[in-house]
Write a structure and sequence with these properties.
Length: about 240
């Protein structure tokens, strides 16, 4: 068996293990897990593109809702030398797995101290840092509208002026819940989308669709204004979601 085959088998085994872990945690608490499968490579790449676009500039980066680390594994190699990464995860089992990932990742050999895993909610994160990029994997449509408002406000507080927030939202969830959920649940879902839409109108700089993800998702990029916020015109790039 050659090295490529051995490495390929390890990757497949890791993906299968992560998939089962997501299913188990979703069964325990879908409201905090928010997914039934880890993020795809394409979704992870789009979520971490703002880090990559900074080139060799040292950055402060925050990842929230990292889960089993499918996006973290894409994010770490994109960090430039001297960058700091804070990872926030509310699920204790996922947080333990993320700490193991940080300890064993080959790109962090001798430098794991620049990556910190925090087992907490982002609303309760105790930090003195402002961040150039925030990558969010939180399942917003599983939360109450007021909680989403609190989290989005917290993100804007934690961003450097001119900093970028990326997050994703699954496509078609409103229609699915309208058919399968109670009226109260459907109203809650619509209210969450209205909160997010307000932030998109004010701060969005782009949106992309990822059809190969399970389920398909939109990736949004929002930017904190450098100066006092003014009414913003939504700029959706070519290939954006309809």
């Amino acid at each position: 068996m050659d090295d490529w085959t051995t490495s390929h088998d390890r990757v497949l085994a890791q993906r299968n293990a992560e998939g089962w872990m997501f299913l188990i945690e979703a069964a325990r608490d879908l409201r905090t897990t928010g997914a039934i499968a880890p993020s795809s490579k394409t979704l992870a790449r789009l979520l971490t593109d703002p880090v990559h676009k900074h080139g060799t500039q040292p950055l402060n980066v925050l990842e929230v809702g990292a889960g089993t680390g499918s996006v973290t594994r894409t994010l770490i190699p994109r960090l430039s030398r001297g960058s700091r990464l804070d990872i926030v995860e509310a699920n204790a089992r996922f947080a333990a797995q993320l700490r193991h990932l940080v300890r064993t990742h080959p790109r962090l050999t001798g430098e794991s101290e620049r990556v910190h895993v925090h087992h907490t909610l982002v609303e309760q994160l105790d930090t003195i840092h402002l961040y150039d990029v925030i990558v969010s994997g939180l399942p917003f449509t599983n939360f109450a509208p007021a909680q989403v408002e609190t989290i989005m406000n917290r993100y804007m507080e934690l961003l450097q002026p001119g900093g970028t927030l990326t997050y994703f939202a699954y496509r078609g969830t409103r229609y699915a819940r309208a058919v399968t959920a109670s009226r109260a649940e459907a109203r809650r879902h619509c209210a969450v989308e209205e909160v997010l839409a307000d932030y998109q109108r004010r701060y969005a700089i782009g949106c992309w669709s990822v059809w190969g993800n399970l389920p398909p998702a939109n990736v949004w990029q929002l930017r904190r204004p450098v100066s006092v916020p003014a009414p913003a015109t939504l700029d959706i790039t070519a290939g954006a979601a309809q």
